[in-house]
Amino acid sequence: MRQNRKTALLFLAPFLTVFVAFYLAPVCYAIYLSLFIRRRVGLGPAKEVFGGLENYIRAVQDTDFLNGLKNMFLFGVLQVPVMLGLAIALALLLDQSRGIFMKVCRTTFFMPYGIPTAIGALIWGYLYSPNLSPFNQILGALHLGSINFLSPGVILISIANIVTWTWTGYNMITLFAALQNIPKELYEAARVDGANRWDIVRSIKIPLLLPTLRLLFIFSVIGTSQLFTEAFVLRPLGYVADNITPNLYLYLTAARDANYSYAGAMAILLALLIFVLSGPFLRRVASS
Amino acid sequence: MALLAGVQFGGPLCSASAQEAFKEPEYSKYQVESGPITLEFWSWVGGLDQVVKQFEQAYPNIKVHVNNVGAGPQEYEKLQTAIKAGSGGPDVVQIEYDFLPSFIVTDGVLDMGKEGASDAKSYFVPWTWGQVSPDAKTVYGIPQDIGPLALLYNKKIFDQYGLTVPTTWDEFAKEAEKLNKASNGKVQMAEFYATTAPWFMGLVWADGGEFFKTSGDTWIQTLNSPEAEKVLSYWADLVKKKYVAALPGFTAEFYNAVGAGQIAASVEAAWGPGVTAASLNNRTSGDWRVAPLPQWSKGQQFRSGNWGGSCDSVTRQSKHPRAATLFSVWLNTAKGPVLNNWINYGIFPASIAGLASPELNQADKNPGKFCGGQNVAEVYAQASKAVNVDFAWSPWFAFVNDNFNKQFQAFLSGNATPKQVLDSWQNECLRNAKDDGYAVKGK
Questions:
Q1: B217 and B302 share a domain?
Q2: A58: how many CB neighbours lie within 10 A of its CB?
Q3: Domains assigned to chain A
Q4: Which residues of B make CB contacts under 8 Å with A?
């Protein structure tokens, strides 16, 4: 038994080392930092003094931070279902078709996932530039006016579009793989019972996709909480609010305003929130 | 003393006789660390690779590694992170004057006065020394360049529509209206840099406005001063009438509009013509001219403001502060680098000798070439003399800078008047600074 435990530890060591060094240690450091506040006397450099939970109290009252969280929830409620819905539809379509066309489609849909997020955002940034945007040129040619994709009222949708473009293919592939795992006998049995294609989709494919879907949903929600790159890359191209996502806001608090303690407190709060939200889902996934 | 230095400075780089007009400090006074040294230098000035070679030839034991980690805020965010981390920062770093206080207050930059840099004061335009030495004792950077404001205009468009070059803001507005009517709204008179607060602040500076000062141990922030309101109301009106564009600056979008002849003029800092020429890839080269900044009233004492301009600071992380100080001083006082930076990148010198140098005027090279061979430097040198010397910045400027975009956006979407823009700007920045522990008040 003891021997077994040692062997297990040995095998776990590579993972644990990396996990502790690059995950646990920074989290602990962030918690430590978050307990300090800056005191200034006169015009000189600030002194970091212990402030207990002061940064946390500031964060829950900070309208900018709360606005970022609100956008994150909007994203989770609107963008995630749209993206997963699209991914299901595409996966089901691919599952229906065969041959070279299917393979070409599969690769094409998956391709955006292979493009680094920053590069993808840059390309979209160009497509969104009000006067250079080909979309606006088309709208203009049809005398339909133009859209400022980077204006405050539209920017969140523009970012949601980039995220959907990047991740739909990835989700589609995962669902498609899950569909491939469904035993063909089930379809045969259903057909013998007189089920048509739509019946099979509704009563066999979708129910059997649910565990995968649940996992993808939780990954997407976690991904939503980490939204940063798209907003960061679009920033120099126009006006993107500091508080558009919690991560951008806390990055700016740290790197721009040099307030690492406060940024640390917000990061910890954000992590706790995600943990609480995703916990029940993960338990469901684990049990099914 | 000054004359003596002129005769004997023959430092490693200079052949004394040819250099007499260009007064350089005595570099041998700077005792550098021994042994081979590599200085990491963060800067976004183009063509520095060539410039530092001159330095490396003169000081064979020092290598300078130039690293462009991004312009402005992109660099500052990396620098702020490196300062917090305690390592990973450069030895020498380019910082704009308006952002310098935020690195002084995080204890990131060295007091170069301790390494003998105070002596360099007399080599620079007086107001720039106030920017790097706010208390007139410590020295947190060596002035590199300045950005006094002037009007860059497209002469071809002005001729085409029969516009006269405005000397007052009244005339400017009238010409803008004329251009709008004559071109059917296709050509706009100028650009309001809607996402670049320091541009707007430079115009307020030119009107005698101030945003930050200290009184005893307290900061005073006045973003919504009467001068600021006057300047913003004037421009906001032109933007509203669509006589003036309000595009995000330094974007493909903006330069495309300029290159396509949709924008006839722009209030630009001294580095502006060079940067514009480079960004347009010499499209419309030769069509442009520079005129003095329009004034608020005819016959008033000529005034200009400043936009940008930067200094080279030594970080507290540097293991070779003496070599780093020497390099910063050399880079901004020696003839070779000062002239090269102007010709390569349109960096307008903060050095007095540089400003007086006839070699700034080179008709066949940018930015002169871009402006049809005009002596661009002369216009800006005049502007530089008309800049209010007491203007100061605050350590929370990075926040102020970004917050302006938010407030002006509210005006663009019709949700705020210019006065409301300035009031929210003032209030939100004040609140942020207070939250951050600064002793600051509004008046």
A1: yes
A2: 16
A3: 62-287 (1.10.3720.10)
A4: 73, 76-78, 80-81, 83-84, 102, 104-107, 194-195, 214, 217, 219, 248, 250-253, 256-257, 396, 398-399, 402-403, 405-406, 409, 413, 432, 435-439
